[in-house]
Amino acid sequence: MSPRTRVDDTDRAIIQALRVDGRLSVRALAEQVHISRANAYARLERLREGGVITGFTAQVAPEHLGLGTSAYVSVSIEQNTWKPVAAALRRVPSVERVALVGAEFDALVTVRCHDNHELRDTVLEQIQAIPGVKATRTWLIFEETEIRDLAYQG
Q1: Which UniProt keywords apply (predicted)?
Q2: Which residues pair with 99 in a beta bridge?
Q3: For residue 114, what are the β-bridge partners?
């Protein structure tokens, strides 16, 4: 990210519109935010080049991909092993997200699996086998709701 790209209310409106529909054309984005197409294009490029907008993705319901079991796994690691442990976690096929956290554990990992058997194998045979991992704790996710605009309110 460049030295702190400034984000104003119009930029926030652009970001919010793209979070709702990342496939908006620049023309539709400009109409929705009530600015000119040239202004929308320039702002979008500035937000991308400044590292504010880091990419565009498709959001997928995991259960439609056969991934019916999801969990958060807390991971406690040995001191000074964060980088190799994080790299190893990223190579585990069922791992969706890895976050370094400040808590009684060191990392929080989101795991998506086909079933509980695969989840058990992922945690007990793959994650716990990573050198530097001391302990794990698993929380099953029963339901998830994404709150897209929470970070953009006042």
Answers
A1: DNA-binding, Transcription, Transcription regulation
A2: 108
A3: none
